[in-house]
Amino acid sequence: MAxxxxxxxxxxxxxxxxxxxxxxxxxLASLRTGxxxxxxxxxxxxxxxxxxxxxxxxxxxxxxxxxxxxxNVWDKSLVGKVEKAIxxxxxGINPQLNGTIIMLPIPxxxxxxxxxxxxxxxxxxxxxxxxxxxxxxDGMDQIKKAKSAGLSEDEQKLYEEEVQALTDRYIKAxxxxxxxxxxxxxxx
Length: 188
Known about the structure:
This protein is an alpha+beta fold. Helices cover 54% and strands 15% of the residues.
């Protein structure tokens, strides 16, 4: 390889692409599919003790059956705030109180809602693709700078091929994750 100013950090590019993939997976996990999953509540933040707190830090989130999530709130004074946070989260779930336990029955999804969720999943995937392409563009810019700093044309081609292969691999992973999620959403 070349000297230090012409070295391209492909590990950093891969780490950034992996970050886009991780973000996509957590966004897809928060989409409800008609089946209960504790991950659906991950984006819900509760106003507790003067600060926004993740719901899993104020209570225990369980999935006792396929269409039910329960939140066992540890501090009785927070039950109302947790219920309010769930109601206002946009998940479309109507919480039911039972002492310090909040029960969240997951309604069956209708066809129209399934299609909407499929579109939302596609938007998440497109955002991930854009992020991956931006990382690719940064990598290609680094290669151009390295070429002007003395990187040979052969090395430039090798780096460009490596960055493109990395991009293709992550774009394919995004497409596969989207396909899996859309199949899960459309499953009755």
